[in-house]
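QA checklist item 7 of 12: single-chain prediction sanity check.
[x] sequence parsed
[x] length recorded as 436
[x] structure emitted
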Amino acid sequence: MCSYVRLMKVTHQRYMQESLPPEVEIRTTNTTWKQISRTTMGAAISKTVVMEELEKLKKEWGNKNLPDLTTRFQEDLDLLKNTTLQIAITGVSGAGKSSLVNALRGMTDFEDGAAETGVTETTMEHKSYPHPTFPNVTMWDLPGIGTPNFKPKEYLKKVKFEKYDFFIIIASNRFTENDVLLAREIRKTNKRFYYLRTRVDSSIDSESKKPNYSKEKCLEKIREYCCDNLTQAGESNPRVFLISRWHLDKYDFPLLQETLENELDDLKRDVLILAMPAFSKEALKKKRATLEAYIMKVALLSCVTGAVPVPGLSVVCDLAILVGSMIHICQVFGLDEGSLNRLAKRVGKPVDVLKSAIKKSPLVSQITKEFVIDMLTKSAVCGILMAAEFVLDFVLVLGSLTGGALSFGTTFYILKNFLHDAEKDAENVRAKAVES
């Protein structure tokens, strides 16, 4: 193994010396390196970052060999892909359930596929609305409880409660005895539920016209009113989240998402994070962290999936893995055409205005094998092979990774940089969307 590593490193160093463009200044020793030109390869990952990831891998999986690791990671990726999240949204008729369903899917109330809304009762049966980008996440718009057709004690059975992961009980003004009766029935099934008070922005707008208005006092007043309603109806220690379907970054929605993440199991938590709208910097950071774990797994899988040399380059990788992963990253950050069009409709801006904020990431329709080869051609001589050298330095720790070290280094390095750029572009798009 040691001779193999030395041979690979000598070959790599010779390639670097012959191929580096003049504007890139790098010393390929074990201890020194300078920042790679951003004009040549975008946001560069330092050796420290790569080594930290590998140290983490060693600590967590040091007693596993490569086949065991790849089998485990393939199972994890398959589970993530196939895990479903079923969210039931219920409450009294007219509380705005359908509008919330649409908001959580990043949609307006008036586009194709949106849940029907109106001033009268529009939901007469439980109806599913898959997420437009992540169809394994489904919002269920349930009929209002307490109507003649859906009495509280029969409600859960009629809407087939067993299929849902958790319930959201909403009210647009006050909660009622029927809401508490429903919560009691849900509690008997050992499922979780959450009280949401919607249309908070409308309430605040109305209160803001009064003398001595205070937003904080207004929110506290609304919260106390809702909790008093629930207490009087028999709910002990109620907790209410105040939200606006138009502004998911405001009020209690970030707290609601954090609560859901803490109370869901690991896989469903990741599914939730990936599918939820990128409404804040914190939401983007959570998406990035989840995708970083994803990248490590697909990079290791690239070692054993028949990776081949890229024509014309001394780079080994699985192009299909790179293409699929880049598309996935763009979709998670809402940089695909469908997500951008839906966001444009929500904020009332031309989609081209939002696209103008994207500086580094390609559109999903542009991510092909030819695109990836072109990217590799432009950056391979700079960063990818250096990343592979870091991996080769670490081969003895990772055990039997030698045969796929270059593939691991290529996949890991390219996707980490792609993730960095996509997060920046997603933040730019978010800023452009809220720009007045």
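[x] summary fact logged: Residues 1-44 have pLDDT under 50 and may be disordered.
[ ] second reviewer sign-off
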